[in-house]
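Weekly structure sync, notes
Attendees: PL (lead), two postdocs, one rotation student
Agenda item 3: pending single-chain targets
PL asked that the sequence for the first pending target be pasted directly into the notes so everyone works from the same version. It is reproduced below exactly as submitted, 396 residues in total.
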Amino acid sequence: MGKKITDKVTWVGKVDWELKNFHGHEYSTNKGSSYNSYLIRDEKTVLIDTVWLPYDDEFVKNLKKEIDLNEIDYIIVNHSEVDHSGALPALMREIPDSPIYCTSNGAKFIKGQYHEDWNFVTVKTGDTLEIGSSTLTFVEAPMLHWPDSMMTYMSSENILFSNDAFGQHYATESLYNDMVDNSELYAEAIKYYANILTPFSKLVTKKIEEVLSFNLPLDMICTSHGVIWKNNPAQIVEKYLEWANDYQENQITIIYDTMWNSTRKMAEAIAAGIRSADSLVTVKLCNASLEDKNDIITEIFKSKAILLGSPTINRGCSYAIAGLMEMVKGMKFVNKKAAAFGSYGWAGDIMNLLSGLLEAAGFDLVNAGKKTLWVPDNDEVDSLKEFGASFVNQIK
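Predicted structure, written out during the meeting:
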């Protein structure tokens, strides 16, 4: 059943505790997720977004318990991706003539996915829909994170229905940000930003500044994934502005893969050298074969610099490193420094390969890297420590 948010707004979504992978296994959802849909009852009744396709019948069944579907006057699709629009076909079989409000790209994308020519009403920034004592105002948000994305602002309740922006893949029955573990919440929020919105950071800043220029009172941000920002909703807006501004902490992340532990020993020695040269910097080591790739990308997002290491395998690098760097390239990180390191036995081209991967992903190389023949001995460990210490000084 639905959960009342205000006298006029009810949450009618789905909490998915079992979800562990999303976007075709491109995004890990270790904390599950939710698909938030909202029902507004004023003089007119409005449904904002639906849920993911696997829960379409359940969604429609539960919605019928909440309201006679024929009483729904308007449907708003803030974003056409299937985790938000998946239940739309099942719903439209029940109320086929209901007008669907979305952007022009939204109408194209919905038609492309479901091959139905429903009653689309396309809107742009500043368009409004009067529903009684409340007015809904539409704000286009292209590339946050699809070209069709938009937000909907509800006057009288001062609610921004933000869709993917400000969300998290985070399952909770508690609904509001002040009712969950905030350490978990912000860990999932920054992971969500790092992996989904980073490529569009300049657009994030521009869109937030545009919305703020409207001087709209804001009591709540109702996202499409995770918690609703009810207690001081501006806090996540401020975080987005911070994250969008070439974000970095005083952190260096060492990412590596290893075959017979030579590269791991290199990584550990380099880390020791970094810590000896700068006791204040946070150093994190991530084995690309063992750790969650989205968590690694989050650590890169937080870092001012990274070191990338791999053993030489058939004159190439490990597939875990190559695959990770293909994802990292799409993130379009800026203002981050890097260097490479690697081990080899007889083919020593690993430096050129890893350095090329870093440059292709937009990192500024600070040196030519460090390679080790076979397993590092005590002298080589000392040399690797010196390399780590030197790297800290080079990025200052």
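Discussion points:
- The radius of gyration is 24 Å.
- The chain has two domains: 3-243, 251-391.
Action: rotation student to compare against the earlier draft before next sync.
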